UniProtKB/TrEMBL annotation:
This is Phosphoglycerate dehydrogenase-like enzyme. Residues 100-282 form the D-isomer specific 2-hydroxyacid dehydrogenase NAD-binding domain. Keywords: NAD, Oxidoreductase. One of its GO terms (molecular function) is NAD binding. Gene3D superfamilies: NAD(P)-binding Rossmann-like Domain (3.40.50.720). InterPro entries: D-isomer_DH_NAD-bd, NAD(P)-bd_dom_sf. Transmembrane segments: none annotated. The keyword Secreted does not apply. The keyword Glycosyltransferase does not apply.
Length: 312
């Protein structure tokens, strides 16, 4: 079996003696002599590379992306006979950490404090301003946090939020209790959002989730609410988000993802009030990638079910 892997991953991969592991760069198309590969492992591969691979790698059985979201691979046009698997579980810890960092930065207004530092101004009034149901929250203690897209990342994050005193509710396709957290469905959002202090979006990019957080749903949030998006940028109507921030109908936003990446120079998000932006760095390097790839290759050899298969 021939396995194409990013050059940065190849040294860590333990393959069978009869398997051929071929490192590739990703900045150039796959060489002609390797278009007979059975498995393509991708990580942060640009769209032109993926589209070329979809057209030329006719023997592929599996495309294993190391990203949690498979949207880039799905958009490349691989044949229906090719199984696509995602990197679910490889980014849970780093994304949970980054989500917490963004959330605390927004709630504790580190953007405002950072501006004060650059201006050599001692902004000690922050945290001592008026309290009340419509006032900004300066703590997670007692905050009502809604996590939209309750999967493995949310399961890692929720206990930490609970330790800080937050009341966590999840939103997913099916209701129930997961990892000690009450999980509801999207049909409950009209009742849930008005009682939400912090909305964390971990939604993937699919046709169904495009602009899932639109003007109507943003309007349901309290004016002091904080939005943290570490899922995909396409899930938020950015024009509606900027409008809500400018009008004071939303307390703050902390975004690791945007609809267009890199964020274009003229985007109004750059200068939206009370907004923190990081450049899609929450996931970092996948954790345990080699073990996942090795398990997938063994499953192909044995004819047993693969992990993390994406519905197409």
């Amino acid at each position: 079996m021939k396995i194409l892997v990013p050059a940065t991953l190849a040294p860590d991969l333990q393959a069978r003696p009869d398997d051929v592991v071929v490192p590739y760069d990703g900045d150039a198309p796959i060489a002609d002599e390797h278009t007979d590969a059975d498995v393509l492992v991708v990580w942060a591969a640009p769209p032109p590379f993926l589209q070329d691979a979809a057209q030329r790698l006719g023997a592929l059985r599996l495309v294993q992306t190391l990203a949690a979201g498979p949207d880039a691979v799905l958009a490349a046009g691989f044949a229906p006979s090719v199984t696509v698997a995602n990197g679910r579980g490889l980014h849970d810890g780093p994304v949970a950490e980054h989500t917490l960092a963004l959330l605390l930065a927004a709630v504790r207004r580190l953007d405002r404090l950072g501006a004060a530092q650059r201006e050599h101004r001692w902004d000690s009034a922050l945290g001592h301003e008026q309290a009340g149901p419509d006032a900004p929250h300066y703590t997670l203690d007692g905050a009502r946090v809604t996590v939209w897209g309750f999967g493995s990342i949310a399961a890692r994050l929720a206990p930490v939020l609970a330790l800080l005193g937050a009341e966590v509710t999840g939103v997913a396709r099916s209701a129930g209790a997961r990892d000690g957290v009450r999980v509801v469905t999207e049909t409950d959002l009209p009742a849930l959002l008005p009682a939400t202090d912090v909305l964390i979006s971990l939604l993937p990019a699919t046709p169904r989730t495009r602009h899932a957080l639109d003007a109507a749903r943003l309007a349901l949030l309290p004016a002091h609410a904080v939005l943290v998006n570490v899922g995909r940028g396409s899930t938020v109507d950015e024009a509606a988000l900027v409008d809500a921030l400018r009008a004071g109908r939303l307390g703050a936003a902390a975004l690791d993802v945007t609809d267009t990446e890199p964020l274009r120079d003229g985007s109004p998000l750059w200068d939206a009030p009370r907004t923190i932006i990081t450049p899609h760095v929450a996931g970092g390097r996948p954790q345990g990638a080699s073990a996942l790839v090795e398990a997938q290759v063994e499953a192909l050899h044995a004819g047993t079910p693969l992990r993390n298969v994406v519905e197409r």
